[in-house]
Amino acid sequence: MMLPGLLFFVLFKYLPMWDLLIAFKDYQPALGFWGSRWVGLEHFERFFSDPVFWQLFRNTAILAIYNIVLFFPLPIIVALLLNELRVQWFKRTVQTFIYIPHFFSIVVVVGITYVMFTTEGGIVNEAVSGLGAEKINFLTEPDWFRPMVTLQVIWKETGYGTIIFLAALAGVDPSLYEASKIDGANRWHQLWYITMPAIKSTVVILLILRLGHFLDTGFEQMLLMINALNREVGEVFDTYVYVNGITQGQFSYSTTVGLFKSVVGLLLVVVANYIARKLGEEGVY
């Protein structure tokens, strides 16, 4: 039963790591992997000395912080609210509706965003215009780019993200709640002293794993949302790799950027896990 999963990780996760060596070569498809010239850290020096590096890092880091601060707590809050519902049919109905957006393609989500927020007949802007205010260019104004992208992630993934936390809540011993009632605890006391400690380890582990993807902002979403007017705040590492690697054929240079992202994610996981262990949590390893 473990074989398919092991094969997946070996074929698609571990074997491709060998090709990271082209970040240290001037890779030319005609010469092949071994025939291409070894250049050492030349691509890294070029990348870190390029002024665009700090722009990419700033844009990616800000979006990542938005996702962690604004999005990460929401599945926990929604799971706690769902756990308090006692009418089962209503609870299942709410779960169904909030799970559905997860199964929408990001292309569909961006399409819905364009239909709703465009200045040419968009529902939101028509409402703004109806109130006597000027229409807002949500899709082209740089100041609106990050909130729009973050709201898309929140709408699409919050409901589905509650599954793990609901599973953790299902493992809480009901006798703890009964005993607390006898001791005079109200619902707030039960939430704070029983429910929250029960899912604390799950929250810590998921946060550590989330930090491993700190610089992953979602390539498809960024590519679809970026335009000429908001590119200054929308260009991130993922889109930069696409432009340089796929459209311009700079395979070694784009691999360097991807390797940098992976190293940052690894360091964040190691540091976060170390801090979690020092604070008495189990951590990832």
UniProtKB/TrEMBL annotation:
Keyword field: Membrane, Transmembrane, Transmembrane helix, Transport
One of the GO BP terms on file: transmembrane transport
Residues annotated as transmembrane: 61-82, 94-117, 158-179, 191-215, 258-276
Gene Ontology CC terms, in alphabetical order: plasma membrane
Main subcellular location of this protein, as a coarse class: membrane
Topological relation to the membrane, as annotated: Multi-pass membrane protein
ABC transmembrane type-1 domain sequence ranges: 57-272
Subcellular location: Cell membrane; Membrane
InterPro entries the UniProt entry points to: MetI-like, MetI-like_sf
This protein's record includes keyword Secreted: no
Domain of life: Bacteria
Family (UniProt): Belongs to the binding-protein-dependent transport system permease family.
The protein's name: Sugar ABC transporter permease
Organism of provenance: Paenibacillus thalictri
Lineage: Bacteria, Bacillati, Bacillota, Bacilli, Bacillales
